[in-house]
Design a protein that fits this description.
single chain, alpha/beta, Methane Monooxygenase Hydroxylase, Chain G, domain 1, 6 domains, 7-stranded mixed β-sheet, nucleotide-binding, cytoplasm, ATP-binding, Lon protease, ATPase_AAA_core
Amino acid sequence: MIERPQLLPPTLPVYPLREQVLFPNMVFPLFVGAEGMPVIEEAMRNDHMVAVAACLSKEDPCRYEDLGRICTAARISKVFRFPDGGGKAVLEGVSRIRLVRPTQQVPFFVSVIEPLVEKDGRGLVAEALVQSVNALLKIALAYGRPLPGDVLKMIDRLEDAGRLADMVGVYLNLQLRDQQRLLEMLDPIERLKEVYMHLTDEVQKLQVRGNIQSEVARRLGKSQKEYLLREQMKEIQEELGDEDPRTAELNEMRKRIQRGGMPENVRKVADKELARLERINPASPEYTVARTYLEYLCNVPWNRGTEDSLNIGRAEQVLDEDHYNLKEVKERILEYLAVRSLKTTTKGPILCFVGPPGVGKTSLGKSIARAMGRKFIRISLGGMKDEAEIRGHRRTYIGALPGRIIQEICRVEANNPVFMLDEIDKIGQDFRGDPASALLEVLDPEQNNNFADHYLDVPFDLSRVMFITTANLIDPIPHALRDRMEIIHLAGYSDEEKKQIAFRYLIPKQVEENGLAKSPLKFEDAAVLKVVRDYTREAGVRTLERKIAAICRKVARQITQGQPARSLISSAEVEELLGPRKFFSDIAGEEDRIGVVTGLAWTEAGGDIIFVEAASMTGKKDLILTGSLGEVMQESARAALSFVRAQAEQFGLASDFLENRDLHLHVPSGAIPKDGPSAGITLATAIISLMTGRPARRDVAMTGELTLSGRILPIGGVKEKVLAARRAGVKTVLLPLRNRDNLKDLDENSRGAMQILFVESMAEVVEHTLLPARDSQARGRFRDGELPQCGVQP
């Protein structure tokens, strides 16, 4: 009887298979990557049929010439798709076919096929071979050769020589080319003879293994069982000419430990863990845990690092290319490189960049890494609550892993990267631990040379790592952690600095990203300054970059609609493209009012101006505070009121000026929380302005803390506050006298035409801020016959 070929399409998509050959009547689960799914999808559209051919070459990708010409037509019964784009297909071998010629090779193979007809597989010779193969299978099973029970029952029922040869050939663990040779044999009897020869060889090897076991057992005895097992594996590998996969894995692990460059104490731990791994059954869960631990020990770059680029001139050039100004930061990096060139064992510094968003803290870390020729790592600490994220989990926990510090260092394969810990001021804390405390060991130069990750449980030297942390505010950082870092403040940018940044970095970047590189867009200086002053109010340049990007997008849209391309953006066109201005900064043109004083504040977004308003009404000497004021600012208000009452005579007020009256202090934008120790003189000036009836100059802004004795204490964030005052159109800024040295951080361009005055008493503040009273309505609040003793006559 001759088997007739099944009806098949003239062409089929071809799926290359490297590990195994698919035989007819065989059910085969095929795991397909995302790159192979188009073949399966084409087969599903083609009567669920696909040609599965063996790829006989190790080159990647597989070529059509490398495919076995005789292969198997298979039907796809089921397809399961995975989220990563891949999937699993269940194939059923149908019949042998021949690949005639390709009709398509990209993106996958499609070939003209020719069905093959097998010869008759029955007769006396076939029956004898079937019986012999069944007998050999039973002998192999007796020697411990594994074979699924359902497969054995199926083989017992098979009488067809061809199907029996195909089924037994699958379970013989033959090489790929030997499997392909079986597939190409169209004579079932010849194919079964080939299987019989391979099976005979397998049985002989099993018999030799049994003899080896007996001989080794006789020679070594029961007391040396561990040595017996190892000798058995060696003898079996020599006889079979093959290496056991587990033994190969252990040998490879041993080689990795030897060339891993581990310190002596770590090497001892690794050798001990490897010896333990050899004794564990591979089926035990502990085997995977021990193997994963050893792999991490081998992956840690104990003595592998990048070589620092100590060319100071090149490093300075790189920093200048990437960032404008930031002199203090650049000088600190160049100092570190200079020291490294003189002494190679210098510990890495622990820097903390503190400044408002958008001033370039994170991108500065990348530039430092590029200037030094080091790898760059960045992790965000914002919202991190679990201490194990830093130090890792103990190996006793299921799914334990090293902390992010060790993981990232393993990923870059260098023990001296530039490691940026972003948003350190936003780190969390809950019942799972305190990550900020866990960072103490990481960021302490005296301790981090023996950093102990809970998972590795061996010390690792972090002293060569250059740690950089970033924060918007320094106050939320715990004092113990802050003490271990070198604080470098990054203030906001002035209008001129923003203009330079826009022309040097932002405009070229956005022109490129928005497809305008072929017709470059240029901006006038006035246009950029208009965007800075009328459409942004920030310390950094993020909003400025977004506005420039918006202009580029609108120009790109006009080009695609066939309108004439703009080549130059003027200040008039800015308003046309971005709409009406968003911010009005000229407060000097507004009316000077009684009881309304302009103050300066510093927030995590940079400097800003605030208005303190004071009002008085009939009451019982109560002090009312509104505007979402924090505890510190409320105490400043009480202290300011107590100072004014104590010094009422100095400011020409009656001692009982609050008799039968309430005082209300309000800071507008009441939905925004406000706090800080620098509003004392602003609150006191508002009270004095109200009670004396003298308007406060709107174009004078002030900042400073006031004590009950009248001292004006220095404050922080001077540069940010001065820049905010300039953005708002303030003409005069009053600062505490002890902040005079802070003006070194401000160049002439940052100050502009503003006048900066230093004060050390409230009398000076009143003199520079309050105007004469406009009418005589305020005289009732003065002492009889007296005028304010502040140097300005009403």
